[in-house]
Amino acid sequence: MKKILITGALGQIGSELSVEFSRRYGADNVVVSDVNSEGAKLAPGNAYEVLDVTDAAALEAIVKRHNVDTIVHLAAILSAKGEQNPDLAWKINIDGLLNVMRISMSMKLDRLMVPSSIAVFGPTSVLYDSPQETILKPNTMYGVTKVIGELLADYYYKKSGLDMRGIRYPGVISYRTLPGGGTTDYAVEIFYEALRSGRYTCPLSSDACLPMIYMPDTVRATAELLEADPDAIKVHGGYNVGAMSFTPAQIAAEIKKYIPSFEIEYAPDFRREIARYWPASVDDSAARAQWGWKEEWNLENMTRDMLVNVAAKLGIDFKL
Ligand SMILES: NC(=O)c1ccc[n+]([C@@H]2O[C@H](COP(=O)([O-])OP(=O)(O)OC[C@H]3O[C@@H](n4cnc5c(N)ncnc54)[C@H](O)[C@@H]3O)[C@@H](O)[C@H]2O)c1
Q1: pLDDT tens-digit profile of 219-239?
Q2: Nearest residue CA, atom 30 of ligand 1?
Q3: Is residue 228 part of a domain?
Q4: Helical axes 186-196 vs 248-256, angle rounded to 10°
Q5: Residue 14 beta carbon below 6 angstroms from any ligand 1 atom
Q6: Is the CB of 149 under 6 A from ligand 1?
Q7: Domain that holds residue 306
Q8: Predicted structure pTM score
Q9: Is 52 in the pocket of ligand 1 (CB under 6 A)?
Q10: Looking at the domain assignment, is residue 156 inside a domain?
Q11: Where residue 306 sits, what CATH number does that domain have?
């Protein structure tokens, strides 16, 4: 793991992962890429490449040019956006993924990290403490592409020995880059609206309990899994990783502790149907036992940190 290429690096996760990976491994050893050209300014010190992951020849040329031996493949269309444009979700999440997998194998790369998602679960899955191994029959195109990604990871690991790693990320909460069109985006938007207007209209129902993770835990989990000893890794498609679980009503109550006048109302839309068949919590004992996963952030300390940092970003005078 000497030279890492991150695809989709301008997104919610990539914009922070590229900073943390540069700190851990040296900026010279991290090449960041995304489909548009705005990245150079976000990644001082890193090489930046404009890369559409559906263009296999361009991907191969970048891997060669930078002597890349590890790819962290973040480019994707997320759940809500994927339901609005299923063909695009298939094209980026499957055609793009296959390019990355094939090039990783043909160029004998050391490691490939492809995130999965809690969207792999569905109506027939166990939805409380969802097990690592359970029925995975999602009812969204995004979920379908993530299950296929996990199956391909297992298949190519067995066929070619490609060292594939993945996490079923819960909803990711962060303040640096806005989320890109997922069902859990509400848990970020709520902080902006609480601070800006004191009101939030939630697209999920008040009792939609979902697993979530704060960004510092997300990037640390990703680095720790990537660094883990290959012999310890028994799951190649996607590890369940839990950190916190809450409903919109619970996060609203937590925010109200610091902004007592804050009000939430509910106007559930199509995202309620997506959230309905996602787990309330996951059993992440495999991640804990095999590579030492342990969260540091919960609803309480995450809420305080988000309020302080979103307020600073918005230029709003706010004290805890
Ligand atoms: N954010 C979450 O809550 C969450 C939860 C579960 C899983 N994930 C997974 O984590 C990964 C990263 O998610 P994210 O939240 O950063 O997503 P995001 O939508 O914020 O970012 C995705 C990035 O991919 C880029 N992209 C789109 N099409 C591309 C293409 N053809 N070629 C290259 N880049 C392209 C976009 O420009 C964007 O910068 C994805 O695989 C996603 O499925 C995210």
Answers
A1: 999 999 999 999 999 999 999
A2: 52
A3: yes
A4: 30
A5: yes
A6: no
A7: 172-212+243-314
A8: 0.97
A9: yes
A10: yes
A11: 3.90.25.10
